[in-house]
Amino acid sequence: MKSFAQYLTETRQTFDYRIKICGDVDAKFVNELEEKLQQFDVITMTEPKKTPIQKVLPDFPGVENESMSIIDVTFNYPATPPQMIQIARLLGLDPNRMLIQQTAYADSIDQERAEYEAQANPVLGADYEPDTAESKEANEYYAADPYKRQVINNEYSSDFTIAGGKTAPAEYNTDKPAGKDSPIMGTNKIPKVTSSAGDSAPENRKNGPPGKNS
């Protein structure tokens, strides 16, 4: 049969909180905070755990490029977040850089945030798929020297032979001897250029200028 002390111990309720502080905290502040929180009968209080610097802290959306210090504390007597924030303010901490949540609630928020990030970025944190026979064969094929196999040896040449033979190359004017063809369309002969005087020039000189009788 359990004693009264055992029943009392098993039914005793504790109060768990997670303290989040934006930025670094020194050992002096932590010791002074723990001393002030003794009025709620501190059972355990962890050392600050520092997170990596992040572009935006989810718990402090107005702060950029900052880390966060996390402290878990358990009391025998209930304490409210405003009471603990007021104690930290009296110790010189900006209350806007401190957030206090019940530990169970904080854990649920962290889990929900992790699941959301995993769905948004399914590749992050995922294990590599094991190599298949096809992937191993491809790795061995390209590992030999992919540049030499495909470019120098020209394994994948685009010089195909079409059924019926190859088409004769096209002919251009530049392939023909120069000066044989006329640039004028519709004729292959270069027109002969004659003088404007022509064969009648002596007769015109004999009869005089046009319009006058001899």
Task: Explain what you see.
- By secondary structure, the chain is an alpha+beta fold.
- It has a domain at 13-120: Alpha-Beta Plaits (2-Layer Sandwich), CATH 3.30.70.260.
- It has helices at residues 4-11, 27-36, 81-90, 103-120, 133-144, 146-152, 201-207; strands at 15-22, 42-45, 49-50, 54-57, 60-66, 68-75, 98-102.
- The strands form 2 sheets. Strands 1, 2, 3, 6 and 7 form a 5-stranded antiparallel beta sheet that branches. A two-stranded antiparallel sheet has the order 4-5.
Q: What is the CATH homologous superfamily assignment of the domain at 13-120?
A: ACT domain
CATH architecture of the domain at 13-120: 2-Layer Sandwich
End-to-end separation in angstroms reads: 164 Å
Order of helices and strands: HEHEEEEEHEHHHH
Residue fraction in strands: 15-25%
Task: Describe the main β-sheet briefly.
Answer: 5 strands, antiparallel
Low-confidence stretches: none
Tally of strands:
7
Mean of residue pLDDT values:
76
- Helix coverage percent of residues? 25-40%
Radius of gyration using CA atoms only? 48 Å
Shape: elongated
User: What is the level 1 CATH name of the domain at 13-120?
Assistant: Alpha Beta
CATH fold name of the domain at 13-120, please? Alpha-Beta Plaits
Q: Work out the helix count.
A: 7
> What class do helices, strands and sheet pairing give?
alpha+beta
Oligomer type? single chain
